[in-house]
Predict the 3D structure of the following.
Amino acid sequence: MNEPSVRETDPPGSERRAHTGGGHVDAGDAGYRKSLTSRHINMIAIGGAIGTGLFLGAGGRLATAGPSLALAYALCGVVAFLVVRALGELVLHRPSSGAFVSYAREFLGEKGAFVAGWMYFLNWATTGIADITAVATYTHYWGMFADVPQWVIALVALAVVLTVNLISVRIFGELEFWFAIVKVGALTLFMLIGIYLLATHHPVGGHSPGPALITDNGGVFPTGSLAMLLVIQGVVFAYASVELVGVTAGETAEPAKVVPRAINSIMWRVALFYVGTVVLLTMLLPWNAYSSGESPFVTVLSRLGVPAAGGVMNLVVLTAALSSLNSGLYSTGRILRSMALSGSAPRFTGVMSRSQVPYGGILLTSGFCVLGVGLNYLVPSEAFEIVLNFAAIGILSTWAMIMLCHLLFWRKARAGQLNRPDYRLPGSPWTELVTLAFLALVLVLMWADGGAGRTTVLSLPVIAAALVGSWFLVRRRVAALQDGAGPGSGG
């Protein structure tokens, strides 16, 4: 039986605590419906690993790094898999809709949960702005929308996805399922076309497909190995939202059965859809035939003379952006509720609707996305780049927090304080340490790349100061809820 949900009239902390494994108790786990099925979780895992970073961003990265982009995708894919595998072990230890924020609370205390939650909010609030900007930009591809202001399209996209998230978690799951079907279907069809072109040596834009297009155009590293390293920061962003499968664990009836299967499938999907697709692209056209202003799939299909290739792929990229926005509203709603019930987020983000949707947190994230509508009104040509780098900081901090929580979990298990499930992250503690070092390297690469990346790294002290200041505002309320005295008067 589900725990009673928190209504608008219930103060945070007044509901029964949700009892979970490992001896830890998290109020934010109470009240959810177990509406997500194995079908939903599997496709959410696929959708989380396939986004606009491949459909659109791969063109510019191919033009920068050439065929070595496949190595960058492989390296970052392994790191993403290790992160989500670590999260999977924590999920089996204790399924939680608060996911890594709940685990940070268990292993790092309320301060750790506070940092983890708000950095994740920064990630998805800025990603949401990037998503609605992308939707508006892609929609302008079709002439009938050319005269519609970019900010209007962004606002409509936000309103539609917000409405879906507010109805029920099952509707969210269904939408993500079909979004993933579109993305996987498009990639599969393209790969079948590419394999046919390779097998028959059918010319593509005057070039004969095959490995010779790699060897005759500078090899794997035509612009040097440094170029491959510098694109890694953008490739990491392409894998953002793989951690979403951990958030969904609190709303599925059999997380111990469903989550490991979904996570294990991520590795081969990354190998097939990212690495395989990039290798295929470099054997269909020379690497310097691609550009940042066009999807690499559109580049190939247009060289073949396929009618409406641009329109079809534009629809797929539009789907990927809507999927990302949908995921962001879903996950931040659950994360913010977990934080609100511990006192570290605004009280209204802890309330749930009659359909057991944490609408307070969803509305807060949507409110920040509205700022993105304002950016699209004021600086439509710069809105995407302004927010993209801040989203990257949020992703890096989220992944680092997951690995840090798992490292502390491993230490407690080794000390005999906890039992590790059979489904484990291999190679602990070295796996966690190497992954944390890699994430630190990405920050260094952002600095080395200059421009917006360096500006973002320079903003880290400001973000840290904001987190410290905000913690002092809420710490008395957090302490009061920990003591069971209800919301305090401070902060």
About this structure: The chain has one domain: 29-479. The domain at 29-479 is CATH 1.20.1740.10 (Amino acid/polyamine transporter I).
